[in-house]
Write a structure and sequence with these properties.
The chain is mainly beta. It is built from no helices and 25 strands. It binds zinc ion (ZN).
């Protein structure tokens, strides 16, 4: 999976009047408020279920900004934050900016003490068909693939909030060109990391964006959509980045043999 930045353009020209203008796309909304005849405060509001990391590139004429170009700020779910104050330096002034954003918190630090729940039904051994750094498609990725037939129940590995769901794809193939055809569920955890459960079955999600979910809860069904060599579950826990594809994090899971990192070719159960 990749997390592509979206672009928002905001441009304003403040005259003598007080204005409150908004311009947004999807779950993020930008607005401005004139504090005085020479100062403008900029806000970003997040109406989505998860956090967003945002960076803006200012285009200022006769103004300075309290925030550096392209410095990243995080807007938690349901909050509106002030991210910059622009100050006129004399003469005719105007401002604008473009912005990129990615879902999640780029400053998140993974809780290394957390032990994850296995994502498949209990009481059965399931093989890790590709491990961290695996040679088929994980060479640059700390992700795990479980060997699960189409339609297998997928359990939540850690408590969190569902921040993104796709389940309309009916397509998969063994070529990287199919990477964007994967169905998925993304869940944000309390430490700001995100779990991406991928290759799910068509219409294979049991949860919706905004749902609060618990470890061990049924969230969907495995499939073979996207870039995939056969039915399986691909799971990656990651900290968001503005790079196309986050590397992912190695985590421990509760297994019948104790808490451990999972290895390619081995089978595990709980
Ligand atoms: Zn995989």
């Amino acid at each position: 999976m990749r997390t592509l930045p979206f672009k928002i353009i905001f441009a304003g020209l403040i005259n003598a009047l007080i204005v409150h203008s908004t311009h947004g796309q999807g779950e993020l909304e930008f607005s401005s408020r004139e504090l005085s005849s020479t100062e403008v405060e900029l806000f970003c509001k997040n109406s989505g279920p998860g956090s967003y990391s945002v960076r803006v590139d200012f285009n200022l004429t006769n103004m300075t900004s309290s925030r550096d170009d392209n410095s990243v700020f995080v807007v938690p779910s349901g909050e509106e934050i002030s991210f910059a104050v622009l100050t006129a330096t004399g003469g005719k002034w105007k401002y604008g900016f473009s912005s990129d954003y990615v879902q999640g918190d780029v400053y998140a630090v993974h809780d290394e003490q957390h032990i994850y729940h296995l994502p498949h039904a209990g009481g059965r051994d399931v093989r890790i068909m590709q491990g961290y750094g695996g040679s088929f498609s994980h060479t640059a990725s700390n992700a795990l693939d479980w060997d699960l037939e189409e339609g297998s129940p997928i359990l939540c590995v850690r408590d969190g909030i569902v921040v993104d769901v796709r389940q309309d794809s009916q397509h998969g193939c063994m070529h990287p060109r199919c990477i964007d055809a994967a169905n998925f569920i993304k869940i944000e955890h309390s430490d700001g990391t995100i779990a991406d459960y991928a290759h799910l079955q068509y219409q294979g999600s049991e949860v919706q964006e905004g749902d609060s979910v618990s470890a061990g809860q049924l969230i969907g069904f495995s499939g073979n959509t996207g870039w995939s060599s056969g039915p399986h579950l691909h799971l990656k826990i990651f900290v968001s980045t503005f790079d196309a594809r986050p590397t992912g994090i190695r985590t421990r899971f509760h297994t019948s043999r104790g808490a451990r990192y999972l290895e390619e070719g081995q089978t595990y159960r709980f």
